[in-house]
């Protein structure tokens, strides 16, 4: 596999939506009480604004979009916390046929590169409690738990 990580372009829109829908299907399966089918997970106008920034990346293999990565840069400052600047992985998804082939690790390397370039303090993300495969991948890459969200139904 000859995969590259690059900035998203408008021409990627259909592939991005397809991969987002794969992730949404997993969430619906895990928690149908919370998640629902939605053909408009990412309206085209919203994607158009996103690609103008430098926060949405594509994993491409032989001209095909096989993964997506969206980042959010956060400045954390409060009386209770040490002031920090972090990059938050808001979305990371890999097309089903390419999972387990190292695309996630390529994304992590890209995020580490961005962290170093921008002199950020850390990289953070959230993972669905049911997404054991992603959780294990994050742990194997060196992520540790910072907090745990809980609910009472």
From TrEMBL:
A Pfam family the protein falls into: Acetyltransf_1
PANTHER family in alphabetical order: L-AMINO ACID N-ACETYLTRANSFERASE, PUTATIVE-RELATED
Entry keyword annotation includes Transferase: yes
Identification of the protein by name: Acetyltransferases
Alphabetized UniProt keyword annotations: Transferase
GO MF term (any one): acyltransferase activity, transferring groups other than amino-acyl groups
Segments forming domain N-acetyltransferase: 3-153
Natural source organism: Roseburia inulinivorans
